[in-house]
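Quick one: structure for this chain?
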Amino acid sequence: MYHTLLLATRNEGKKEELAALLVDLDIDCISLADLEARGITTTPVAETGTSFEENAILKAEGYARQTGFLTLADDSGLEVKALGGRPGVQTARYGGDGLSSVERYHYLLAQMREVPAPDRSARFCCVVAVASAQGVLATAEGGVRGRIAHEPRGDAGFGYDPVFVVRDYGKTMAELPAETKNRISHRARAIAALKPELLRLLAG
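Got it. Here's what it folds into:
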């Protein structure tokens, strides 16, 4: 029976969001940063996949093998119709290396400067994978549709949240209360789809 779940991220915002989505499970969620604080180092897993699913599996399997912990990894990103589906799997690296998240979404807004409101549709997509040291055990996907704002709005969330207006809400992800985001976000929907299998694994 598993008592600890490694979340394959060093991003504190993502860790908090994932932990909140898993709070009803009887398990201790730790991150890669938590491991490092305990003196346990890991080698970064290269995200060389061509899809969100491939990258999620690479990370889940890679960190599970290195640590021995049951590991949950996600790969998520923004797909913008007017940009031919970009940034896609390059979401976290869009605009080049070394940019902050604020610089990245401003780069995106610059690419979209001449795109009119009716053509700014976009989708957040997330694939989660859970793996043991023996290999991948389950995957699930979630998505949420919306559009790209003309300027950032809101102070909550992280990443591209301030420029993604959620369909049916008229607000960016960064303007939504945490309880709403944790119900309708792409990551929330992927975790909800994964939970039945995760519960089975935890029951051992």
